Amino acid sequence: MDFDPDGGTFGARPELFAETFVQDCPPDIARDAAALLVRQTLAVTQQPVRAAAWHDLPTTYVVCTEDRGTPAAAQREFSRRANIVIEVDAGHHPFLSQPQTIADIITSLC
């Protein structure tokens, strides 16, 4: 990640994006995804959460075991409050690398 405190933004480093976040995608999808990168405001990392739906609604967390951006161990910790945890052998963006798998997961929850 590239943090710019003076500009108040952060974003994925374009030169590392493919190998970090979409290493399991076909090259054309990785290229198209990289072209859509935008910076985000640092404020999102400092704002308190005012509401969380998981308190009242059933939740599912998809752990991406091959994620190079957010390690699977961290994801498993994030998922501890979810009602259902599903592990997928995928990188950071499984909806790009394995769209049918993600569609099947969503369909199974309906």
Q: What would you note in describing this structure?
A:
By secondary structure, the protein is an alpha+beta fold. It has 5 helices and 5 strands. It has helices spanning 14-21, 27-35, 72-78, 94-97, 99-109, and strands at 2-4, 9-11, 40-41, 60-64, 84-88. The strands form 2 sheets. The chain has a 3-stranded antiparallel β-sheet, with no helix packed on it. Strands 4-5 form a two-stranded parallel sheet. A hairpin with a 4-residue loop joins β1 (2-4) and β2 (9-11).
- Rg, Cα atoms, Å: 16 Å
**Per the principal axes of the C-alpha atoms, what is the gross shape?**
globular
Q: Into which percent range does the helicity of residues fall?
A: 25-40%
- DSSP, total strands: 5
Q: Report the major sheet.
A: 3 strands, antiparallel
* Count of individual helical segments: 5
Descriptive keywords:
alpha+beta; 110 residues; two-stranded parallel ribbon; 5 helices
Topology:
Blueprint: E1 2-4, E2 9-11, H1 14-21, H2 27-35, E3 40-41, E4 60-64, H3 72-78, E5 84-88, H4 94-97, H5 99-109
Parallel strand pairs: 4-5
Antiparallel strand pairs: 1-2, 2-3
In short:
This protein has helices at 14-21, 27-35, 72-78, 94-97, 99-109; strands spanning 2-4, 9-11, 40-41, 60-64, 84-88. By secondary structure, it is α+β, with helices and mostly antiparallel strands.
